[in-house]
Design goal:
alpha+beta, Pnp Oxidase, Chain A, 5 helices, 8 strands, globular, Split_barrel_FMN-bd, Pyridox_Oxase_N, PMP_oxidase-like, KLLA0B10824p
């Protein structure tokens, strides 16, 4: 299997803008586990101290007590699923959103739209695309006391400010997934492979 993969621009764009990715891990006995994860995508030239590398990474954090962590320690081969069933330039639930606007009380004189209302309004103006991508990769646990861990933690917090409790903590570690290949399918059942 190739050590670097050339990802198409539409997949890179999706990785940069989506809020969540589904992470599939398996134990040493091949028992699967799937988790919905906040993440950040790292382009080759933005990777920690990897000059000249063409590797793409997905970075996330997890507690050492989770099944996904135990699986990654036993079996570092992982799979990621990401999709753009609905896309919009400024969709409320995207990474750039830090809104925690509550649903207004009936006593409020100045009505504020809820996050759900914002989302529904933006969905009406959204462009439907319907692409999904399955990425295969190798996961590495980053030493929590390293500069690399600090580097990626800051990136995770910058793009996921509402996920602080999943990223910071004495028991949490940063996981780096090196993308090895990708399979992209669209709503017309056309599939493309990138290795």
């Amino acid at each position: 299997m190739s050590t670097t993969v050339d990802l198409p621009e539409h997949l890179v764009s999706l990785l940069k803008t989506s809020k969540y990715v589904h992470l599939a891990t398996a134990s040493k006995d091949c028992i699967p586990n799937v988790s919905l994860m906040n993440y950040t995508y790292v382009l080759p030239h933005k990777a920690f101290h990897e000059e000249g590398s063409n590797s793409h990474y997905v970075i996330f954090a997890t507690s050492k007590s989770t099944q996904k962590y135990k699986n990654i320690i036993a079996n570092p081969s992982v799979s990621l699923l990401i999709h753009d069933w609905v896309t919009a330039k400024k969709l409320s639930l995207r990474k750039t959103s830090v809104s925690n606007t509550p649903v207004p009380d009936s006593n409020d004189s100045e009505e504020q739209p809820s996050r759900l209302l914002n989302l529904l309004q933006e969905l009406n103006q959204s462009e439907l695309s319907q692409m999904s991508a399955t990425l295969s990769g190798t996961a590495t646990v980053i030493d929590p006391s390293s500069e690399e861990s600090d580097y990626y933690e800051k990136q995770l917090l910058r793009v996921n400010p509402d996920a602080n409790c999943y990223i910071k903590g004495d028991d949490n570690v940063i996981i780096k997934v090196k993308i090895l290949d990708a399979k992209i399918s669209d709503s017309e059942n056309r599939t493309s492979y990138y290795t």
